[in-house]
Structure formats: structure tokens, C-alpha cells
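Below is how a single chain appears once it has passed through the pipeline. First comes the sequence as given, then the structure the pipeline wrote out for it. We keep one example in the README because the format questions we get most often are answered faster by looking than by reading.
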Amino acid sequence: MPESPAITSNELGTLWMTYQQKTMLLRMLDYFIEKADDEKAKNIMTGLCEEVNPYVQKIVQIFKDEGAAIPVGFTEQDVIPDAPKLYSNGFDIMFVRLMNSISMGLHTLHLSMSYREDIILLYKDLTAHTQDYSRQCTQYLLEKGLLSRAPYVTMPKKAEFVKDTSYLKGTSPFGQKRTMNTVEVSQLHYSIDANATGMQLITGFAQCAQEKEVRKYFSEGAELAKSIIKEFSEMMLEDGIQTPLGAGGNATRSTAAPFSDKLMMYCTSLFCSFSLGKNAIGTAFSLRNDIPTKAGIFSKDIFEYAHRGAKIMIQNGWMEEPPQMEERRNLI
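Resulting structure:
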């Protein structure tokens, strides 16, 4: 066996995905750092930017060593740092926190799909630094009063077992809808919180996108996020459970684009993929069957929305193609 085996299709694909995500994040950080009016927030984002850059260079070096084409990703042409402020009131850190949530899941998954020691270590280090910045962002937002904690609950005094299959139907033996358990509440609370940030993000995108079709697409996305927030909030309120009450992260009145339409479309696509994955996890761990039913409906809507976005990206030449496997039929 060679000392350093060639990278597999798994590793090539995951490195390509990581490069796309990280170069997008760096361009957005360029803008958010330039517009930051809070020194602590600026330090968090600057530190993150300085730590992410070397990983991007490591990925570039791996591609070079393997004789693979370097992806285009996102460059300085995709950001206008001196554009007016598009978001206010702590949105920058709210966005970075949500991006870290996406990254933590992806890095762990990509690590489990890797074989070569240097790539495994790359994802291991990325996971650790992402976890650290997720903690920093959470503490910052809590200190500023910009993040709503999940509802508190009375601690259980003994372990209980489900006594009737009606538990799965979401009803009590007397036909009443049972109160959600803490696992189910955690999934709904997180979905509401993430969609609130996503709604503000995409609202800002809708205000400043250059192409009319893209502006319309973003507006539809904001409405979809609103409907998810509304439905899940009503489910929690029916059980007398407090819903997230975030106080920050507003889009301003600016209509000047700080990012290219290409970057904003990719960012929205990434958030759609994250939302689909999160809904799948929430469905898997929810035992009250009305929750997976609603999540399934929204998953269908999100998938169709993401599919329309992919068509727009292709039509405008914005969708970079992942590395392909050999076209055996054509070769033969």
C-alpha cells in the first residue's frame, strides 16, 4: 500500500462541498466584519475568519497534490464590503451561529465518510473549532439578550414507561391530545429559532437581489419560513409552551446588494438542505404523529422550493458542478 493513498470519491466530494461552504462563509464574514458596530462581535467573526482560511488552503493543497481542478467557490467578486448595512441588531452573530450548526453536522458526517488520515484530522479539527465558535456565539447572544432560551420544565421525579399505544397517536386514553414531551419540544423550538434567522436573512436578500426572478424567489422563501414558524408556534402554544421570542436580527431598509445573486442563491440552497435534514431528524425522534405529519408537509414544500432555486442557478450559470464519476457509457 502507498504511504499516502489517493483520495476516494467520498473524500473528493466532501472536500468539494466543504470548499464551497467555507469560501461562501469567508465572503459573508468579509462584509459582516466591515459593518460590525460591536467590538466583541467583530472579534468573534475576525477570529473565525482567521481560523477558517488555513483550512481552505489545506483543501486547495490536497486538490493540487491529487491533480484535481480547484473549485471556483466564492471569491472577492461575490462580495461588496462597502455596501450599506443590510442587517442590524446582532444578526451577524445570529447568522454565524446558525452556520456553525450546519457546519458541525456536516464536518462530523464528512469525518465518518473519510479514510485518509490527513483528511480525517482536517474534519476533526474543523469540528472542534466550529464547536468553540458556536459556544462563543451562543454566549454573546445570551449576554446581549438576543437569544431566547428553550422553555424550562419541572424535573421528573421518577422514570416512566409508555402505557398505551395512543401515546403514538398524540392523544391520551381519553381522546385528548397529549402534551408534547421534551424531545419533541426541543425539535420544534430549534426549527422555529432557525427559521426566524433564515426568514430575516432571505428578506434582506429579497430587498437587494439584482435579478427580478431571484427577488421573487427570495420573497417566496420568506413566506415559507413564516408559515413554518406560525404552524410550529401554534402547536407549542396549544400545549401552553412558550415559543422563541428572539429580539434581534432585523433586515434594514437597504436595497443595495452586499453579495452577488450567485452567493445568495447558494446560501439559500444550503439553508434548505439543512432544513430538510433537520426535519428528518425531528420526524425520527417525535412520537406524537401529528408532528412528523406537519414536518413532512413542510419538507415537501422546502424540497420543491430548493428545486426551483436549483433551476434558477442553472439557468444563470451559477451552479458549480461537483466532481463527476467516470462516464463509462460514453467511454465504452
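Residues 313 and 319 are 5 Å apart (CA to CA).

See the next section for the split statistics.
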